[in-house]
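REQUEST FORM: STRUCTURE PREDICTION
Request ID: SP-0412
Submitted by: Lab K.M.
Chain count: 1
Length (residues): 213
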Amino acid sequence: MRNKIAAITDHTLLKPEATESDIRQLIDTAVRLGAYSICISPSLLPVSVPDSLKIATVVGFPSGTMKAEIKAAETARAVADGADEIDMVINLALALTGQFDALEAEIRAVRSACPGKVLKVILETAVLDDETIIAACRAAEAAGADFVKTSTGFHPAGGATVHAVKLMADTVGGRLGVKASGGIRTGADALAMIEAGATRLGLSATAKIVEGA
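STATUS: Completed
RESULT:
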């Protein structure tokens, strides 16, 4: 089970004070644990990692309030700097006011900026009701995203919940992956998210979670 958790984990360090030294330690830990990828801030790219490890980064992070063309430009730069995967934060106001065509267009702009790369769409599910989560998942799928993701881990409303993960998994029906992130602190938390339908985990306490599973 430890290996199963590690193999779908984005070992994450997005604290604004993170340094290059911190990232080297992150990489070493990810390799030791057998994590799928590291997820770091775009300003810390490029980095060198073993072939076994993917590099993910975030755009529009953490508020999602940047204009779509800014997110697209940030994405293009991250890809040029070696990112394999992009985790974008949606403009929550678009979802909350039912502007799902505009939300789809925003996601599509980022999708166009990272052809051939994995795109994960962060919905910040703790802020949204079930109906809005479903509609946002559908917009992400229509725009060509590869994953829908629960949370940044930075919003005061909270992070991933089993309910949100199951709702997302039921909505995308295996056509997209589901990434659970934010507030996952124990092996039991991680297993509950996997059982609910998560196919990727975003973890910062990866060693504690994996070794305690």
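NOTES: The mean pLDDT is 97.
Reviewed by: T.R.
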